[in-house]
Amino acid sequence: MSGLVWSRDGTDWPNRNASAFVEAAGIRWHVQRMGEGPSLLLIHGTGAATHSWRKLLPLLAQHFSVLAPDLPGHGFTQSPPSYRLSLPGMAADLGTLLRKLEVKPEITVGHSAGAAIAARMCLAGRMTPRLLIALNGAFMPFGGIANHLFSPLANLLVMNPLVPRVFAWQASHAGAVERLIANTGSTIDQDGIALYRKLVRNPVHVAAALRMMANWKLEPLLHDLPRLKTALVLMAATNDRSISPEVARQVREILPSAVIERLPGLGHLAHEEQPHLIAQLIMEHAHANVAEETAQEM
Question: What pTM was estimated for this model as a whole?
Answer without folding.
Answer: 0.92
